[in-house]
C-alpha cells in the first residue's frame, strides 16, 4: 500500500480530481491556506495498491503538467496608443510524493 | 515513531478527537476542501510511539466504524396519502494510514 | 528525498514560512480546522533532499522554538485597587515529522 500526496495547481485540481475518481481512486483534498506563497494549490491524498502507483502518477501528470500558455499583454506607448502582444506564462504543474504505508485500515 | 493519518467521517470527527485527546494523544486536524466528492471528512494527524499504534487505531475504530442506520423515508401514494417507512443508510467510517517516521523532533 | 511535515504554532508560522522560502525550499501550508484543541497551528509540508533535512529542521527550530514570555497579569485587590504583575507563559513551538519518500515526481 502506498500513499500518494500530490500538490496540484488549482488550474488543474478539478480535472485531476475527476480523472482519479473516474478511475476508481478514493481522493481526499486538503485545503491550503491563503498565504501568497502557496496560493493556488490543492493537496491531494490518494491511498493505492503498490501496483497502481504508476497509474495514479500518470493520471495526475496527464491532467496537470506544467505548460506554457500565450496570454495577451498590453503595453502603453508614447502617444497614448497601446500595443497588445502575447507573452508566454507557465501554468499548471504538480509535485508528487509517494510514501510507503506501514499499515492500512478501513473501519 | 509512527504517524497515523486518518480520514474520518464528520459524523464521528468530534468523538474521535475527544477520545484521542482524553487518552493523551496530540491530535492535529486538517481542513478538507468543500468539493462534493470529499465533503464530510476530516483528516487527522497523530504522532505516536510504535507500541501505541494499536491503541490509536482501536480508538478511531471504536468511535467511527462504518455502520448502518435506519432513517425514515416517505413515499407518496396514489390517493394523496403517504407512507413513511425506514430505510437503511451507511454512516461513519474511517480510512487509516500508518506511516513510518524517519525522524521526530519537538522544538 | 524526504518529506518534512511540521506542525507550527501560528505565533511562528509566518517567520518559518519566510525563512524556509528565503533558503529556497518549496513550502506548502495546510489549513487546520478551527477546533479548540488544535486552534493556533499551521501544518507545513516541505519536500527536500536527504542532506538538507538538518537545515530544514534547524530553520524551523530557530524560528519556532517553544519559549516562555513574561506577560502582564492584573489582580484585583480588596479595596478596589489592583496590582499588575508579570506571569510566565509558554508560546511557540513545533512538532516535526520526517518521512521517507519512496518516489518523487515533479510534472
Ligand atoms: Ni504496500
Ligand atoms: Ni519508530
Ligand atoms: Ni531520498
TrEMBL record, chains A, B, C:
Pfam families: CdAMP_rec. It comes from the Bacteria. PANTHER family: CYCLIC DI-AMP RECEPTOR A. This is Transcriptional regulator.
